Amino acid sequence: HRSVEAIVVGIPNLGIHRIDEYSPFVDSRAGGGKGDRYLDWVISTVKPLIDEQFRTRPERAYTGMAGSSMGALITLYAYLRDPSVFGFVGVLSPSLWFAGRSIFSTLAASPHVPGRIYLDIGGREGKVALDDARRMRDALIGKGYAPGSELWWVEDPRGHHNEVDWGRRFTDAVTFLLK
Question: Which of 34, 58, 86, 120 could be 154's S-S partner, Cβ–Cβ 3.0 to 4.6 Å?
């Protein structure tokens, strides 16, 4: 049994401007809509730089992304938009409500591409967030993502929408995504 080594690249968000960079859709109240530019930068600038500077396996099976809240929204969108680049994603407490839940129609229009998706939600994030996350879980299963092998679903009964709870669940996410 060989241990897996991973290279993790942390990209800081732009604070209040994270809505712009992490949203592929424009929301009538929250704004946003620059997510495609952000992903183009990650794929055409950041990833080639990492692949050049470090000993990586650049294939999609070894390339993933993870994020929480709005970061989770752009992460799931990246997997759907660029399946030739990303083979796994960690989607923690995603802001699925954004732009009238546009991510659901994006999923509906996307083909099933084998890979691994970790999806979670905190039980204390509110009924709307719970319902949206459960709906996304069901939509992913309906699209063909097999629970346990391609989709790992976690509903954390004591989880809130915050970094402490995302951090607590992240080890399990990484364990699934890197297996």
Answer: 120
Which residues, at least 6 apart from 138, have a Cβ–Cβ distance to it below 8 Å? none
3-state secondary structure of 51: helix
Which of 55, 93, 75, 59 has its CA nearest to residue 170?
Answer: 93
For 84-178, strand residue ranges (E) read 88-92, 116-122, 151-156
| Both tokens assigned to 93 | 């407490």
Residue 67 belongs to what H/E stretch?
strand 64-68
Q: What is the pLDDT of residues 125-156, one digit of tens each?
A: 999 999 999 999 999 999 999 999 999 999 99
* Cβ 165 vs Cβ 171: under 8 Å: no
What value does the mean pLDDT of the chain take?
95
Partners of residue 65 on adjacent β-strands: 89
Please check the confidence at residue 15 and state whether its pLDDT lies above 70. Answer: yes
129, 161 contact by CB (below 8 A): yes
